[in-house]
Amino acid sequence: MRPLDVDSLNPALKNVEYAVRGELAIKAEALREELKNPDNRLPFDKVISSNIGNPQQKGLDQPPITFTRQVAALMEWPELAKLAPNVFPEDVVQRAHELQAEIGSIGAYSHSQGVPFIRKNVAKFIEERDGYPSNPNHIFLTAGASVGVSLLINMLINSPKAGILIPIPQYPLYTASLAQHSGVPLPYLLDESSEWSTSIQSVEDAVKKAQDDGITPRALVIINPGNPTGALLDASTQEALVKLCEKHSLVLLADEVYQNNLHKPETHTFTSFKKVVSQLKSPIPLVSFHSISKGVSGECGRRGGYFECDNFSEEVIALIYKMVSVGLCPPVSGQIGVDSLVRPPKPGQASYGLWLKETSAIHEALASRTHTMSERLNNLPGVSCVDSPGALYLFPQIKLSKAAQDAAKSAGKAPDAFYALGLLDETGICVVPGSGFGQKEGEWHYRLTCLCPGVDEYVGKLEKFHRDWVEKYGEA
Ligand SMILES: Cc1ncc(COP(=O)(O)O)c(C=O)c1O
């Protein structure tokens, strides 16, 4: 018997990289373990996970929305409504009864595409958001947005010469899925000098380069609001992008999981691509992704999300259905989470007051942290940081001196990874180096989340580390 070794496995898997849970995150876990030893000599007393948008993670302070959890609790164990008759508000009990009548036990497989009743509720949510019809039969509930993205990429990559246009910097799910399915990433650069906006010319340049290289671009990925940049697209850019997809016969993959994370709603509003495509009566095939992991729901571990297909033929929808049915169904608890996301309590209902208070507090905390952190980072020598209007992150640029770059080289690390490892070693703060998302050659960044409590102490540590670094290696 030959031992099972990596070289005998699917070679595509070797190329998969996912920095958000990469070297830094692995080291952070090891340090967390080390801290449990009372004799540890670490210069900090806690590890701060600023590497991943996981709002309810231990150590962070975002609480779950009570309404979502109460509905979930009654779905898990319907007896609870009788055993604790005064605990659950009337609208929660009603919601759970309604869902139980549609779903039955959450321990049973559901329809592979997702519970039809919940899909109808998703369609109503989209219609109310955008003012255009949505077809529940073209909506697929998923175990988080990631599963949908990976499935669509798998379906679209029809040859090793097929590529997908992805923003740089990007959320590494895209490069990881492309590597897994042997597709070619076709990077287009976002413009940091204008709040990480998307330039049509840079997408056109990427299409042209692909064609020159003999690669067929199949789809354009847009992450709006952006990860890691937090950028929000304006309507005219969205329209131009839709037209660009028409011109080059591209499928538009619109990752809109942060649509409810808006920190400057007076000036920066979200418009879905579904609305833009509908307004323009564009024939482009559009897939829009949403998730319960982000927004104010933050239910990352529950694994729930959906994607909606527009301008897809029934034949293609049937093929997607065939593929999702191989996995039987998305987690029913995640589907119930999606139902709560798209049907929050309304004014006049018993849960509304608390829901409003909880969601407003989360929005306010995120907006104020994002702003304070970017302001303070911008005051550091050699650091510039766009004050993100959306999502959960900042992506500051750090100028690194020749001495710092040489030290990184001797350590066998990319300069930004070297910086991030130093930050982790000295402060316990875990961020992700920009190289994990892609960045312009010769530039260095890191991504940190805006989810950590105690901003003063937290940013204070970042500032001290950076100033010490500049003292050690000099200004760039
Ligand atoms: C842009 C973007 N898309 C998709 C996802 C996947 O989220 P989930 O699979 O938890 O829904 C994430 C997670 O961080 C993300 O940032």
Estimate the strand proportion: 5-15%
Residue-averaged pLDDT: 95
- The number of distinct helices, counting runs of at least 4 residues, comes to 16
Low-confidence stretches: none
| Associated small molecules | pyridoxal-5'-phosphate
Radius of gyration: 23 Å
Question: What shape does the CA trace take?
Answer: globular
- Sheet/helix structural class: alpha/beta
CATH superfamily of the largest domain: Type I PLP-dependent aspartate aminotransferase-like (Major domain)
Residues in helix, %: 40-55%
Largest sheet: 8 strands, mixed
Structural write-up:
By secondary structure, the chain is an alpha/beta fold. It has two domains: 170 residues, Aspartate Aminotransferase, domain 1 (Alpha-Beta Complex); 243 residues, Aspartate Aminotransferase, domain 2, CATH 3.40.640.10. Helices cover 43% and strands 13% of the residues. The chain contains 16 helices and 15 strands. The strands form four sheets. Strands 2-9-8-7-6-3-4-5 form an eight-stranded mixed beta sheet, with helices on both faces. A three-stranded antiparallel beta sheet has the order 11-15-14. Helix 2 crosses helix 4 and helix 13 packs parallel to helix 16. The longest helix has 27 residues. The radius of gyration is 23 Å and the shape is globular. The mean pLDDT is 95. The protein binds pyridoxal-5'-phosphate (PLP). Pyridoxal-5'-phosphate binds next to helix 6. Its cofactor is pyridoxal 5'-phosphate. Belongs to the class-I pyridoxal-phosphate-dependent aminotransferase family. Alanine aminotransferase subfamily. One of its GO terms (molecular function) is transaminase activity.
